[in-house]
Predict the structure.
Amino acid sequence: MSDDKTTRSESAAEKHGVDPKLLEMLACPLTKTPLAWNAASGELISRAARLAYPVRDGVPIMLPSEARTLDDDEFSR
């Protein structure tokens, strides 16, 4: 299966070392909603929680205590 969404996820994931299949399975631990990949910052974004989860050495850090809050400018993008 290689639709546009999968292709974008795979290329972003390969560039930053996150497994594309893992990205498809991840959800925000607080809201249980899907996450969006921000290639520019190397973070997984939860719009519902207004949080950005870091990815370190290809490993998503899915702890709310490690996430940063998105400011209004970032959230509106």
Remarks:
- The first helix runs from residue 4 to 16.
